[in-house]
Design brief:
Blueprint: E1 3-8, H1 13-24, E2 29-36, E3 44-47, E4 50-53, E5 55-56, E6 67-70, H2 74-86, E7 90-93, E8 122-124, H3 128-134, H4 137-143, E9 146-155, H5 162-176, E10 195-196, H6 208-221, E11 227-234, E12 240-249, H7 255-263, E13 268-270, H8 282-285, E14 291-298, E15 307-315, H9 318-332
Parallel strand pairs: 1-2, 1-6, 2-5, 6-7, 7-8, 9-11, 13-14
Antiparallel strand pairs: 3-4, 9-12, 10-11, 12-15, 14-15
């Protein structure tokens, strides 16, 4: 089965990743519409040896479209997704606009593909740090329920878009040339620096990225009582996020049991070479579909061997965004 496809936000970092993944996975489509803002309208994109003209996205852009992949920002999703649905399309939205709407499924295909059937025109793609963090936690949680998660993220520039990736590159050049770094995409210097995630703080001092991870994990796991706390930071890496995850389980569990579970888990690859001190790095995860897991070890501060530490790395643009959305679209077909 194939479909008529629309890609909203096609000129952005995730939009470009959509195209790459659609081609690599040979996603079946009869036609594709390249949609973006008025600034990008008229640009030419070569895709699968054919040249396309980028169109300005309007409420009339979705005629005869079956599936619309959105990565154009929350405000644009709220403005245009209803028009796409009215035209008969199913929207897979990569923004935060609909994630916590109780009527909108929030889906990671390795975890809750059954939720796709509940859609009413929109399926939400989770936040990148949520996807990368919980794909490997889910098979462990199924085997031995997780009572508490403590997550520290090390998030790449790509999460803030193409301009942020370019800023990391340009700042690095400026600093190495003895110049002051130019800050536009980020509020602070990203090259040779780390800072708290550049999203809005709530009254309790948690930034929006941390709040997303808590709420989205509970919704995807269908487990409102799971205790989660997060600290999210930006690091000077181009496109792969890393996360340190501490898990407290209901029953005792060993590192060997964790490795066994993860070695057969969908969307996960284990890289846990203690002999050579070789564990997942951003350069390992870049352009990879799987979330990589290593540093699997007992947390002896948790009684009765119920604590485990893991370290994960995942491509933010790929599994953290575009790939997850395309996997949802594949299941729609």
């Amino acid at each position: 089965m194939s479909c008529n496809l629309a890609i909203a936000g096609v000129t952005g970092a995730v939009g470009q990743e959509f195209l790459k993944i659609i081609e690599q996975r040979d996603f079946p489509f009869d036609s594709v519409r390249m949609l973006a803002s008025s600034r990008s309208a008229g640009k030419k994109i070569t895709f699968k040896r054919k040249e396309y003209i980028v169109e300005e996205m309007t409420k009339k852009s979705f005629d005869r479209v079956n599936i619309a992949l959105f990565s154009a920002g929350a405000s644009r999703s709220k403005e245009f997704a209803p028009a796409a649905i009215e035209a008969g399309a199913v929207v897979v939205d990569n923004s935060s606009a609909f994630r916590m709407d109780p009527d909108v499924p929030l889906v990671i295909p390795e975890i809750n593909p059954q939720a796709i059937k509940q859609h009413k025109g929109i399926i939400a793609n989770p936040n990148c740090s949520t996807i990368i963090g919980i794909v490997p936690v889910w098979p462990l949680h199924k085997a031995n329920p997780v009572k508490r998660m403590i997550v520290s993220t090390y998030q790449a520039a790509s999460g803030a878009g193409t301009s942020a990736m370019l800023e990391l590159e340009s700042q690095t050049r400026e600093i190495l040339e003895g110049k002051s770094p130019t800050c536009k995409a980020f509020p602070y210097q990203i090259a040779f620096n780390i800072f708290s995630h550049n999203s809005q703080l709530d009254p309790d001092g948690y930034n929006l990225e941390e709040v997303k991870m808590v709420k989205e994990t509970r919704k995807i796991f269908d487990c409102p009582d799971i205790a989660i706390t997060c600290t999210c930071v930006r690091i000077p890496v181009f496109r792969a996020h890393c996360e340190s995850i501490n898990l407290e389980f209901t029953d005792p569990i060993t590192p060997d049991q964790v490795r066994d579970l993860l070695s057969v888990a969908p969307g996960v690859s284990v890289l846990d070479d203690r002999e050579h001190n070789r564990f997942p790095m951003p350069i390992d995860a870049t352009d990879k579909d799987d979330v990589l897991v290593g540093r699997i070890r007992q947390d002896f501060s948790v009684p009765e061997n119920r604590g485990i530490n893991i370290w994960v790395a995942g491509d933010q643009l790929r599994k953290g965004a575009a790939l997850n959305a395309v996997q949802i679209a594949e299941k729609l077909l």
